[in-house]
Each structure stands twice: as C-alpha cells, then as structure tokens.
Amino acid sequence: MISGLLTTPQLHYIVRCQNDSAYGSPTEAGYYAKVHNALSSLDFVTRCGKAYTPTLYLDCANGVGAQKFSPICMRWSILDVTLMNDQEAQLNDQCGADYVKIEKKFPRNFDRIQAFERCAAFDGDADRLVYFYRDASNEFVLIDGDKIAALFAKYIIEQVSGAGLSDVFTVSVIQTGYANGNSTKFLKEEMGIHVCCVATGIKNLQKEAIKYDIAVYFEANGHGTVYFSPRFYDIIRTIITHKDEIDQTIEIKRLLCFSKLLNTVVGDAMTDLLAVEMLLKHYDWTVEDWNSIYKELPNVQRKLKVVNRRAFQMSADETTCVKPLKLQRMINAIVSKYSDGRSFVRPSGTEDIVRIYAEAATAHDAEAIANEVEVAVCDVLCMSGNVEK
C-alpha cells in the first residue's frame, strides 16, 4: 500500500515495481536504495578532474522535491547542494522549472548567485529539470531539456562506441518541433546520432522511444528520461558475465550504471539531476563548458485566436501544415529568406488558438519570421487577428 507524500516520478517508480519486481523494491525506501547503489557504482567508474566543482544551488519550487531530495543529499556527500525555495506555502510562486524556462530569469532568492555558479530548478512535483547560471555580463543563461538530452546522448554514444557496440545497438534522440534547431544539428552532424521528431506530448516521445535499444527523449521544458530496451540489458549482462572480457569493458559498466541511475519509467528531476552531475564530472566541465556545446538559435513563440482550430491539419510530427496547404507554402517561402530560418504553426488541442514557433540565426530575424507567419495565417483563414500576450 502506498501512503504519504511522494514526487510524481517516485509514484511512477513504485507502480512499475509492483508490476515488475525486477525493476526494484516497490517502496520509497526501495527508490532511494536503487538510486544510491547506482550512484555509487557510476561514481566508481567516473573519472575526476579539476574544472568540475560539486557546488549546486537548487530551486525546489517550494514543492515536494525539497523534502524528497534531502535524503539523497545527506547520503551522497560528493555533491554539495544548497536547497532553495524549499517551503510549502508558495508553490511555483516566481520559482520552479516552468517559471525559469518561460520567464527566462532567475527565480526568487537567487539574486546573490555569483557568475558561473551552477544552478538548477525542479518543478512542483519534481518531474521537470532545467539548469541556469549567471554569465560574466551578469546575464541569465538557461540550459533546458534540449541540452540535457544532448549531454546524455553524447555520453551514451561515446560509451557505446568505446565498447565496440555501435553496430549492435540502435540509438536515437526523440525530439518535438519545439527542440532548438541547433540542438538537432549538433546531435546529427557533430555526434552522428539518429534524431526523430514527433508530435508534442511526452506520451508521443515515449511511444517512439521504445522502437530503439537506447532512446533519449526530452521536451525542451526539461521533462524526459532515457529508455533502455530489454534487448539492451540482455546484451550488456551477457558481456559482463564473461570474465575474460570484464577488464576491458569500463564503457559497458558505465552504460549499465547510468541506466540504473535514471528513472526510466518517466521523467524524474531528481535522478536526471544526479545523472547530469555525474556526466559533468566525467567530462570535467563547468556549467559554461556544457552550455557551449552548441549555441541556441533565438526563437519566438506566439498564440493567435482563430475562428476554428479544426481548419488546420498537421503532419504526424506537427511541424508541417497539411491543410490549408497554401499556408505551408507561404511559411516555406518566408523562412527561406532567413539564415537558419524555421517556423511552424500548431493548433491547440483544447481551444481555438494557433501557436506559432519561429527561429533564426538572429533574434531580429526570428521576430521577423513570426510577424510574417502571423500575417500569413490571418491572410489564409478568417482570424480575429488578436495575439494573446
């Protein structure tokens, strides 16, 4: 029987264990034991340098994450975490992952954070995670789900390659149309990783992820995890049981420990954070080093009121307007005028509005694309013409 306060991912973990005893013990204590064991094992096979520092300031959104992350902090002394916004009275009030992501500014009580001090934020029920910091110019810098996915994918593909298993495992990163264009470019062109785009919604990412042996799936809002197939575990365990191979497979050990650390049932801010910290330690990176793996393209998001959202029909991944076809042709013509231009429209599933996403090499061009696409939508359909602010 489940009782007491839990994070949403902890509840998902317990339900999974009830249905699959091999996954772990179906209790909160079982959750912590699994995390601690995996963390200790991964730390043992993780190299250590001088640039990475274990200090972290964590915005808990005044939610359940503050109470539930404390036991991990107490048991794992390698990470020096300062819990902030850890009261229950002001849930998500000017704090939390959603606030940081949407407002693109520091949450309350972070005004004294110094340049390049690493900060992270949970949302209220601790299933979303974003990072942020203050740069040398005193500006706010966000590291969202796209870069968490890129970090995980980089580590995984390097371990798979180092173990000589590139031809054995299928590996992919699952994104939505809202993933930054340069994140997709980094994964495909620099890392050589297969990338798949699906419709918005974590259930759509999960549905695609299970087609691969290993699949990293994150939404830009910081909700995501990594899927590891039964075939992955069968192959890894077979290799590890061969004593004549075990000494030359540190990459295999890392893959297995990494998979056990993550809550593979659902996005879990607590285990995702621990995984990020272990990988930053592995690469001996500062938060600025991590952020510099690629530069995000400036992007704009808007909403338009429409008479009937059902007048729009979209492709399976929701990035191409199938009907009215004229609108997609107009969007194609608009983005072709701008460097790294990309845009799509997507009708809401619940109200008569259409969302517009636009990105380009400069903020000015991203705004220009959004303006032109907005006009195109109004020209093609009967619109109210009002943009919701």
From TrEMBL:
One of its GO terms (molecular function) is phosphoacetylglucosamine mutase activity. GO terms for biological process: carbohydrate metabolic process; UDP-N-acetylglucosamine biosynthetic process. It comes from the Eukaryota. Residues 330-373 form the Alpha-D-phosphohexomutase C-terminal domain. Residues 27-130, 144-285 form the Phosphoacetylglucosamine mutase AMG1 domain. PANTHER family: PHOSPHOACETYLGLUCOSAMINE MUTASE. This is PGM_PMM_IV domain-containing protein. It comes from Elaeophora elaphi.
